[in-house]
Amino acid sequence: MTPTMEFYDTVGVASSTSDQKLFKLLNHRGTTLVLRSDMTSPIARVVSSLLKEEPLPIRLSYHANVFRAFEEEAGREAEFFQTGVELVGDDSPDADAEVVALAIESLKAAGVATFKIAMGHVGFLNGLLEEVLSSHDHEQQVLKKQLLDRDYVGFRKAIQDLDISDSQRMKLEGVLRLRGGKEICDQAIELSGHNLARNSINHLCKVWEVLEAYGVSEHVLIDLTMIGDFSYYTGMTFEGYAAELGFPVCSGGRYDNLLRQFGRDVPATGFALKTNRILDGVKGNVGEAELPVLIRYNPAGRKKGLARAGVLRKEGKSVVTRLLQDESEGLMADSELYGQIETFI
């Protein structure tokens, strides 16, 4: 487990969380600390220091509370839990597919019934923008921000305001149509001839092929409008959406530059589940809990009763034991509280 408080100049700056959402405080020496806002940056620090002699790749998992400062009217908790994994030291499509497949299985295990994983790649958009707007750095950042905010109307308007040719404008608008299944691979290749864009889509489509081998591709769609935090992610990114919940339930991707900030230049990929949201959302889907078993015994039947309780607990049953003074003691009331009652006398 990493510390709850980290140094702002290292973990705080490296975090994907915006500076405005960090809880900051000063220690007795005047050094700025932050409450951890995610687990990826602290884990990157640990991998670069305590685990620097471990052979790669390294697979790590976590479940911990994190802290973020939200607007009061946003109605979101400042402290919440994240559950996730990090795979460090492998830049292959198989590594990216492994974390996506694990995210899918995690959502299933958590009881999320219907969901989709939207998968994109920041390199594709970077390549396309470099191809069309190579000398318009500010405009590139504006378009990226609009896609990050899902402002497709603003994205289209900004494209119309650009001083570019109609064919270039059509290429940029074509990004909005690149959402679907495996067929998006060919469509994306046709849209851009830039090497970065082509290499990125080839990587993404190899990830899809591995997900097919895992047998989970029916939960995945390619969405090249989804770029994640483009200042943090360097390759494949993904988000999970549950139909019955109406908000993202997981997110992740490749962040090959993060560990370099801690002195170890190795690739990494991973994801985090939004644990609180998932638990709140699936409450209504969880069936009624099985009632516990009551083991009643008098002094003469204590040994047999406790032995029976031990057997049931090993079977995964919830068991309550009680010493009886009278064989009929509370029997009627107990019948409503327990699914099974056994008496040893």
TrEMBL record:
Protein's cellular compartments: Cytoplasm
Residue sites binding L-histidine per the record: 38-40, 68, 82, 86, 232-233
One MF annotation (Gene Ontology) recorded for this entry: glycosyltransferase activity
Keyword Cytoplasm assigned: yes
Pathway: Amino-acid biosynthesis; L-histidine biosynthesis; L-histidine from 5-phospho-alpha-D-ribose 1-diphosphate: step 1/9
Cellular component GO terms, alphabetical: cytoplasm
Positions of the Aminoacyl-transfer RNA synthetases class-II family profile domain: 1-246
Major localisation: cytoplasm
Protein keywords: Amino-acid biosynthesis, Cytoplasm, Glycosyltransferase, Histidine biosynthesis, Transferase
Keyword Ion transport listed: no
Pfam families in the record: tRNA-synt_His
NCBIfam families reported for this sequence: hisZ_biosyn_reg, PRK12292.2-4
PANTHER family with a match to the protein in the record: HISTIDINE--TRNA LIGASE, MITOCHONDRIAL-RELATED, HISTIDYL-TRNA SYNTHETASE
Additional note from the record: This function is generally fulfilled by the C-terminal part of HisG, which is missing in some bacteria such as this one.
Entry's family note: Belongs to the class-II aminoacyl-tRNA synthetase family. HisZ subfamily.
Function: Required for the first step of histidine biosynthesis. May allow the feedback regulation of ATP phosphoribosyltransferase activity by histidine.
Subunit relationships: Heteromultimer composed of HisG and HisZ subunits.
Name recorded for this polypeptide: ATP phosphoribosyltransferase regulatory subunit
